[in-house]
Write a structure and sequence with these properties.
With 368 residues, this protein is an alpha+beta fold. It contains 6 helices and 25 strands. Helices cover 18% and strands 42% of the residues. It is elongated, with a radius of gyration of 25 Å. 37% of the residues are buried.
């Protein structure tokens, strides 16, 4: 293998793949990126066996070939070079990759493609196409509610339900529940229900954020999903099993609804949360169009903020995990939001004022 390319283009491609590099694996080859040169295209791939990323860049190919190179090392070298162009060659008899740039030369030990895990290819027509901006916003709203505890693998995923004209995402960690919905212009031919690791969707969102393309094409296999946006593909395993029946915990209706300015509520909650230490909750008390947000941690101190809200009813007192409350507030779009409450021991609902495409259910904390 031998090729020339723009240094920045190669760095960008390698950085895309670096998202899938394993930092904990006992297999050294998973710390590498597979580089395959074929014609005028350089294909780059990386995997940690849960997610994989594949992309390609244009190069001047002198000789086709493939190899696996340590990701961190080659990126460190390329980012510290001054030359705009680099020449890269495989010295097969030495098992090394040679990098030439001006007066600089580096010889890196490599792995070979035969030892690299096989990554599925997207084949045929996509199952559906998603609007990149809309799906990115939905991931941002919903994925934060997924559990990060690997002891409950099902809860580390996001349930994705698709119909020919609609998509829904659901995530829960047992303490909160987030549901996002949107319409589809080109959904699947029938109903689809899959569980995707939340980490995979967060990585997809990072790819979306750096892309100028507006469509995410989705390909489904028996146990994996492939997302393609522009020249980048993210491949993720699916979580097998049955997602919790989230519909069972959704209350049928709320009698008490508090309308509040999102920015003021978020700012006040963040400030008061500074005094909610050692698992101390934030308390929210509302009555007569006034909300009081407070926290009191023994041996640390206390904080209180007041703000006007739209709720003429009698006093409601309810306490929340401060970070879960902040996550719920930040997930809602718009300048205002609604908090719906049944009583201090029942889940509260945070949702937009005028739209029904998102809701965030949060369990309260019992306080004396």
């Amino acid at each position: 293998m031998k090729f020339q390319c723009e240094r920045e283009n190669l760095i960008n491609g390698l950085q895309q793949c670096q998202r899938a590099i394993s930092t904990k694996s006992m297999l050294p080859i998973l710390s590498g990126i597979l580089i395959k040169s074929d014609g005028k295209t350089l294909n780059l791939s990386a995997t940690d066996l849960e997610i994989s990323v594949r992309t390609s860049i244009d190069v001047e190919t002198k000789e086709a070939g493939s190899l696996v190179v340590p990701a961190k090392l080659i990126l460190d070298i390329l980012t510290n070079l001054d030359e705009e162009k680099v020449e890269i060659s495989l010295i097969k008899e030495k098992g090394q990759l040679e990098i030439l740039a001006g007066e600089s030369r580096f010889d890196l030990n490599i792995f070979f493609e035969e030892d690299f895990p096989k990554i599925p290819e997207s084949q045929g027509e996509p199952t559906c196409d998603l609007d990149a901006d809309k799906i990115g916003a939905m991931i941002k709203e919903v994925a934060k509610a997924a559990s990060r505890d690997d002891a409950k693998p099902m809860l580390t995923g996001v349930l994705v339900e698709m119909e020919p004209t609609a998509i829904k995402m659901v995530a829960t960690d047992s303490y909160r529940l987030a549901i996002g919905e949107d319409k589809l212009d080109r959904g699947p031919g029938g109903n689809v229900s899959i569980i995707i690791p939340a980490r995979s969707l967060r990585e997809l969102n990072r790819i979306i954020a750096t892309s100028d393309k507006h469509i995410v094409s989705v390909f489904l296999t028996d146990n994996q999903v492939i997302f393609r946006i522009g020249g980048v593909e993210l491949i993720s395993r699916l979580i097998e099993g049955e997602f919790p029946n989230y519909k069972q915990i959704l209350p049928e209706g709320y009698e008490k609804k508090i309308r509040v300015n999102k920015g003021r509520f978020l700012g006040a909650t963040k400030r008061v949360s500074l005094l909610a230490q050692n698992n101390t909750p934030v308390k929210v008390t509302t009555a007569n169009n006034m909300m009081v947000i407070s926290a009191n941690t023994q041996d640390v101190g206390e904080a209180t903020e007041r703000m006007d809200v739209e709720f003429p009813g009698e006093e409601i007192k309810i306490a929340f995990n401060p970070q879960y409350l902040i996550d719920g507030i930040t997930s809602v779009e718009g300048d205002e939001l609604v908090i719906e409450v049944l009583d201090p021991l029942k889940p509260a609902l945070i949702k937009p004022v005028e739209k029904d495409d998102f809701l965030y259910l949060i369990m309260p904390i019992r306080v004396s």
